[in-house]
Every structure is written in C-alpha cells, then in structure tokens.
Amino acid sequence: MKQPRKEVIDQLIKTKTSDKWVKRDLETMAVLTEIIEAAEVDTELHETLKREYEPYLRSIKAGTMDLWREKYKSMVNVEKYWKKGYMLRWDKETCLCKPSPINEGKEFTDNNHMYNILDQEEMDVSYEFEPIWGEPDAWGPNFMVGYIMPKMEVSTGDFYSYVVRIIRDKIGMQQEEMAEHEIPASPEKEMDMVKLKAEIKEKAHELGFGVVGFTKVDRRFLGNGDDEVAPYQNIVILGMEMDHEEVEEIPNPGIETGEQFVMKIYANAGEGSHELAEFIRSKGWKAHPRVSLDGEVKFAHHAVNAGVANFGTCANTITKEYGPRLRYAAVVFEADVEPDTPKDFNVEEFCSRCRMCQKSCPTKAIPKEAIRIRGAMRRRLNDKKCFASMIGLHNDCGFCIKVCPIHKFGFDKAMDAIPSYYSYNLD
C-alpha cells in the first residue's frame, strides 16, 4: 500500500537529519532514493534521483562499498600530507581529500622574482583553497559553431578550415588523458638525459616551434586543480609564431592573406604537440600532449618558469624571438631532464613605460597597474571584457599584439629605447 505523502516527507526529513555525518553517506543517499521509489512520487523527480544516485546504488548492491572505503582510507589522514607540503584536492567521487603529487615545479615559481610574491603562504593556500579556473566560460561547442566557423569562412573562405583539426586534436588529447597508462612507449629507453633533451628540442623545432623550454609542472597552475591533466612532473613548453603579416591585418584578419592569424597556429601547434609526444614515447618515455587550445595547463606561467618568456603588461607573455606574437602548446613527460631556469629579459622595464596595449584595448580589459592577487603583485587581465572584444565586438581583436613595439620592431630595437640607466639586465 502506498504511503501517504506527508508520512514519506516526514520519514525523509528524519533520515536526513538523524545524524549530521550520516546525511553525506552514500548509503543514506540510497535509502532516500528507495523511500521515494516506495512512495511512487512523480516520475520526473524519480528519474532525476535515479540518474544521480544510480552509480552509488549499484556499488552498494554489488557489495563494493567496503572496498571503496578501504581503497581511500589513507586519504582521510591528511595531516601527514600537510607536513610534507602536498597540495590537497577534493575527490568528488568519494567525498574525501586526496593528496596531489609532490609539486616539484613550486621552487621555480617561488624563486622567480618576476612573480613579485608578497606572501608565500597566502599564495599557496589560495591556490589550494580555490584552484585557478580551467577553460574560459566562452569555450565550448557553441563557441566553435557559432563564432569560430563563421569567422573561418570570412577569413579563409573555408567554413571548416582549421576547426576540424583543432577539435580532433583536443578530443585526441582528452582520450589519451583517460587512457594514459595504456599508451605504450618503446621498450628501449634513452638514458642520456642531456642527449634526450637536445633531441626533443631539435624535434620541436622541426615541427615548427620557434620557442622551446623545459621546466617542472607547477600544480598550482593546473585548471580546477585537476592533476590528471599532467600525469608526469616534467613539461616542455612549445611556442609557435603567429605570422607577422597576418597579425598586421588586425582588425580585419584575412583581408589580404586569406588566413586567420591565430586559429591556424592553434591547429598547427596542437598537431605538433601530439607528434612530439609520440617522438618522446619512441625514446622509451611516457608522454602526454597538451594542445594549444587547452586551458587546463597554464602555459604562460610555465613558459616564464622555463626561461623562454616574461610577463608583459597585457598578461600575454613576451619572448625575445616574437614578442607577444605566439601561442603555446606543451608535452608533459616522464623523463627527468634538466629543467631550464627563469630569465629576466628586462620586459617589465620596457612595458611599464610603453603601455600601448593598455591604451589601445577597446574594452579596457588591460589594467594600468598591478594589484595584489593570491599573495603576489600582478596585472590581472579582465578575461570577460577580453572575450567580449574577441567574440563579435571587434572581429577577433588582437590589438594588444598588433600595437606592441616588440612585435612591430623586434626585441632589440624596443630595448634600445629604454634609458641606459634602466637597462640593468641586457647582455
């Protein structure tokens, strides 16, 4: 006989509130679902609950709950991980804390004066408590179909130009991420780390990457605190140049060249990261690509740590080779090659006197001065305003790249403009 609705509700409330710890227990979720099923409440609610709790119900009925608890028991004792300097991540599946892999890249950031760290503890806690965002809100299928593809047709005359390649490479990266432990590497390992590093760099240049640097993964700079995107501790940062002539066509990309200044690089760099990962596997070491249009591994921070770039006013990185005129990809890999060291190119001395990007930004997304963020002084680009400019308002924007004197005249000429008494760090 069906229970009266009031009785069901009372029983539901009693079950939820009888023990403040029990209400988060997976078994309690199952009990609540069964109560609602017994009451034959409306179908839509029943189906919603069923979808949400089905995995838990299956695990309980299969008798695996005790196995789950045994497997993750060590995660509950977090004190030993705090003492060793691990970052703690929240595991949504088990509702427990688990330790991140040891953050070997931390020392490169912490000892890099270009981050202007004011409070190291504040910086560490802020990234653990509130991880940096992953992909921007604007990215996704609607972004590709509603914005990128029509732009491709205008710029290149091909509705699908580059987009199919970008999507294919990103899906391939995500599939590799899920099956990383199953991807084979050559059984013959190159054990000479100096030789391996040189070979990786040479291969990267062959694939079209003009800027190549090595560092350790800093797990504070992984989107949403997702350690799975970087299963290894070593990362090679790969910078690919956007063609000078195509950048100069902004704000009407493709008007002469028939190319869109940035999407071609996203496509080429994405394919290049997959090829380089395969090359590293051929040397006997596991590797995982991170394509250019990624969002989860923060390339800019790792590029600065790897000594190939400095931060500029516009929150882009500035390199000696191309100024702000490049996009990054990366490969995280198993081999413990010697990391490169950060370098100060005197970019801040130049940018603080120039500010052409900040003055030219049509949506005022670039701040004039640095502010305190996460225990450090830095300029925080307003990415919402920036995306608003790129997606429709100013036809892909890119003004910050086009107006940069280092892009227009080259690094050396730009640095020559700094008064000699400020040029403290130029060789």
Automatic annotation (TrEMBL):
Top-rank lineage group of the source organism: Bacteria
All copies of domain 4Fe-4S ferredoxin-type, residue ranges: 341-371
Q: Which InterPro entries match?
A: 4Fe4S_Fe-S-bd, 4Fe4S_Fe_S_CS
Ordered alphabetically, the record's keywords are: Iron, Iron-sulfur, Metal-binding
MF (Gene Ontology): iron-sulfur cluster binding; metal ion binding
TM spans, by residue?
none
* Protein's name in the database: 4Fe-4S ferredoxin-type domain-containing protein
